[in-house]
Amino acid sequence: MEGDDRGVLADDAQPVDARLEQEDTTRTTGRLRWAIPLAVGLVYAAIAVAAYLPTLPLDNSHTQICTCADTSQEVWFLGWVPYALSQGHSLFFSNWILYPAGVNLADNTSMTLLGLLASPITLLFGPVAAYNLVLRAGFALAGLAMFFTVRRFVAWWPAAFLAGLLYGFSPYMVGQGESHEFLVFTAIPPLVFGIVHDMLVTRRRTTLRNGLYLGLAFAAQYLISSEIFLMMVLLTGTGVALSLLYRSTRMRDCLAYLGKSGAYAVATCAVVLAYPVWFFLDGTQHVSGPPHPTSNLLAFRGDLVGALVPTPLMQFGTSSLFNLGTRLTSGNVLENGLYLGVPLVALTLGLIVAYRRVPLIAVCGALAVFSYALSLGPRVVVAAKYTSVPGPFAVLAHIPLLQDVETARFSLFTVLFVAVILGIGLDRLRRAGSKAVASKAVRAVLVASLGIVVLVPLVPRLPYPVGPPAIPAFFTTTAVNQIPAGSVVVTYPYPEEKYNEALLWQAVAGMRFRVLGGTTFFLPGRNNHSYEDSFPPPALTPTGIEQVFEDALLGSARFHRKVPPSRPIMEKAIQTDIAVYKIRTIIIDPGYRNSLWAANYVTDSVGSPPILIDGVLAWFGLSPKQFPTIVTPSQSSP
């Protein structure tokens, strides 16, 4: 019954919210009602800002670690959205990179919604500033979302504050905070938890409102990270099923409400995502099957002892434990977000046992165990040693789409459910016992101290290292206008693998030019399968420039040569690339090693030396007409 406020997870007497409101009359009202959430949000924001100091949220020249690899790619994604909207281009496809074929952005981690939300900042302060601000906002908003969610279930706000602190600054967030903005912006899962709770328990909103909210939340998550979207679908379905089984006597009424609100949610999500999902599955340059080889995806799995072993990203731990933590998750400490610490694990287990009759704690406990088990991947690993024991994910490892998930990232949901248990459990501990044992204030201090103590092992080793500035002045001044708008540019370093600063230069320059190369985007190779699982399409590989530039950058070790390749042959190959790809400008960053080696090849190939302008070496005004014997009409790209 829609108006009934009793649900499958409610205690026998009445819903959790109403009961707490009767027991605790100290809740703030009126204007002061928002004073505590505002203060909590400011604390979370201050921690997030401090984590990246001395780089400030609106800094447009520095990021953490470096302006390269995933960071450079994500800055480009943020820059593409306002440019595409202003110029009438697609949000989900671009040939401004990987020219001429382009890339299907829907198949990649393009975080389109974040690009939309950050567009005003991008236009006012630049895409690097937008990246820096959104990254910090991801931490603060994740913590605040968890605070508001847990606040629904508790009367004591410090319990909700500690739950938000755990979720918003967990080892998962700290690891992904180095370079994965789309995986740090995780405010939506706690909000989904609250919506589903209302559908199952309190039912304060109509089926239509809950359905709209839930559908929009899932759609928004897809447009930030489709990977977290898939995990959220799986765990939401599992959580609803467990909740219904927990109180099967009330299932009939609940199913009627869930059916209606669920239908509204699916319809809302389908309307919003119809075009993005179609483009993902069948749009230009789409990829069939998993983007990475399945073996690579499954390598990033959790370890059974991961919850107890700190990584070097944590502040506290012994050298032996740090060494072991480094070897977990295939040696990728950034993906190892499973650590919870012995005190928190012990307290969580104690709270589950002590309050096992509290439906919300019981269900969250089961989901925490389930999500942790999923994070272990298809085969259980213990202390970096493989076993023959299959993990629960073995059942899902070959299901389309789900096989794209890096299982270690299920740790986000493990910490979500643990945070809910922590918040509710601390609140109940504070209210437990009699006044003869301790006063209310003393109990509050003791319980708050307990909550702080169990979180101390999770204190991260911050701030993040600051990367060097990687934006030559040329791209931030009017000098960049010497590049004809929309023309093709090739850069040194050639943008692929981790040396892809050119994407950031392009974004900072307002997408004035197109670039050859890009980064490790998911591109179609043989039979439309990802080129990472087969080979890169020849149309995206200017063989002369790529080989010369990479041979120079990597010191020829990549090609197993002690000396540069034959100059006449490679000069001819560079001339062919200029003609075939209609390259108008070549830019070399002289700050990179062996840049003179690359510059000499280009000089000999085009017949003129570069111009040194605002920190770069540049050749402007290149044209296929310079090399009339190179190209035939059939060779020319469209």
Keywords for this structure?
638 residues, 2 domains, 49% helix
Please count the beta strands (DSSP E, at least 2 residues each): 9
Query: What's the structural domain tally?
Result: 2
Strand fraction equals 5-15%
Range of helix content: 40-55%
Specify the biggest β-sheet.
Answer: 5 strands, mixed
Per the principal axes of the C-alpha atoms, what is the gross shape? elongated
Query: How far do the termini sit from each other?
Result: 62 Å
What structural class do you assign from the helix and strand content? Answer: mainly alpha
Mean residue pLDDT: 88
Q: Radius of gyration, rounded?
A: 27 Å
Question: What is the tally of helical segments?
Answer: 23
Widest sheet: strand ordering: 6-5-7-9-8
pLDDT < 50 stretches? 1-6, 12-23, 557-563, 632-638
Task: Tell me what the structure shows.
With 638 residues, the protein is mainly α. It folds into two domains: 372 residues, no CATH class; 154 residues, no CATH class. 49% of the residues lie in helices and 5% in strands. A five-stranded mixed sheet has the order 6-5-7-9-8, with helices on both faces. A two-stranded antiparallel sheet has the order 1-2. Helix 7 runs parallel beside helix 19, helix 10 packs parallel to helix 12 and helix 18 packs antiparallel against helix 19. The longest helix is centred in the middle third of the chain and has 32 residues. It is elongated and about 90 Å long. The N terminus and C terminus are likely disordered.
